[in-house]
Write a structure and sequence with these properties.
Order of helices and strands: HHHHHHHH
Number of strands: 0
Strand content: under 5%
Shape: extended
Helix content: over 70%
Mean pLDDT: 86
Radius of gyration: 21 Å
Length: 151
């Protein structure tokens, strides 16, 4: 391994001073609790839609749609970012984070126009997730078909 130059050593010292260590335990607890709250809210929605008389298939569609719409609204109002900054990964990982990753770039680039701004930039964050998620699903489906269904 190469010996560090004085410039490299000074840079390392500066970055350590500028980047204090994160509070991992506190952040993990906040993520756990906020993610749990999202799940509890989703369960409340599930029960609420069931009480309204929707069948199970309709309820299973209505709950994620509601979470996506609420996240889009909160993102549009500038509130989701503040909540996510406080809550951490617990609020960003579920479907709410995906909805935010679609709405945020769309809002950010809307000044560039509907097609080249909003339309073109909307999936810059979510696009890779969709592409790799679909690819993984296809591979999983093939494995399932050839090893489980066809035996």
């Amino acid at each position: 391994m190469q010996k560090k130059t004085p410039v490299d050593a000074a840079y390392d010292a500066m970055t350590k001073r500028a980047s204090p260590p994160s509070e991992k335990g506190k952040n993990a607890l906040k993520a756990f609790l906020s993610g749990g709250l999202v799940c509890c809210f989703a369960q409340l929605l599930f029960d609420f839609y069931g009480m309204l008389g929707l069948n199970e298939k309709e309820v299973k569609a209505a709950v994620p749609i509601t979470l996506i719409v609420l996240t889009a609204i909160l993102t549009g109002l500038g509130l989701f970012g503040k909540l996510a900054k406080f809550a951490g990964a617990g609020l960003s990982v579920p479907i709410t984070g995906f909805a935010n990753s679609v709405v945020s770039p769309a809002m950010e680039f809307q000044t560039e126009g509907r097609v080249l701004g909003t339309g073109a930039k909307m999936f810059t964050l979510a696009g890779p997730v969709i592409a790799y998620g679909c690819s993984a699903a296809a591979v999983y489906g093939l494995i399932y078909y050839f090893f489980i269904v066809r035996g």
